[in-house]
Please model this.
Amino acid sequence: MSGRGRRITDEEINELISKLQALLPAESRRRNAGRMSASKLLKETCSYIKSLHREVDDLSDRLAGLMTTMDSNSPQAEIIRGLLRS
Amino acid sequence: MYRRSFKDTRSSLGSPNPNFSKPMVALRFLRALSLVRRSGLGACSPSYRARGIRRAAYACMAASAGPRRAWSRALLRKIRRRPGRGLRRPRAVIWRHRPVGGGDRLEVALRRLVPGGGCMEYCRLLEEAADYVKCLAMQVRLMQTIVDSASHV
Model:
């Protein structure tokens, strides 16, 4: 890690690491109680991003399937109302 | 090369983008969905529609995050340049400004996963990854909500 940027201190990197750790899902945080090492965090983040990509693909497939059954504007209006309420 | 001070980094991580609120993203995405629906519903195969929806999802996510993020700019560039192609095609130009240290395998993997992550310095990469994860998670929750609502109609 040294030599990458003279102006970036370890403290800054540590703070970014803990912020990133806070964004990971709860089960990942439970498994790695306390501070994670940088490499563990990178690994968890990579697998989390990959799983999110897979979920987007899966939900896109489901939405594509549902589109054939949705016909008029009224279901969408209901969904919009529901989303704006929450 | 513009290098932000640490104070800027901290404030940008904490302050939310005013454009990126849940109703705004939802409306943008629903509008995109209705466009996908109107553009030839009967003739397309579900997998083609699914690809259109996925592209719309990433486009709406990037558009809502705004141009101040490197990942959203990179995503929009990718989507607008090649309509209809796959979203996660690796590009040779990513390695043009490879960091001198080489980076370990995990850092390289993260650079591949975060859009536009190839050329950044390490600190910036972590920051962009955090924002990308946040927005991706929100997009997934949004799509899940839509699917749940549509299934119960």
About this structure: The mean pLDDT of chain A is 76. Chain A has four helices and no strands.
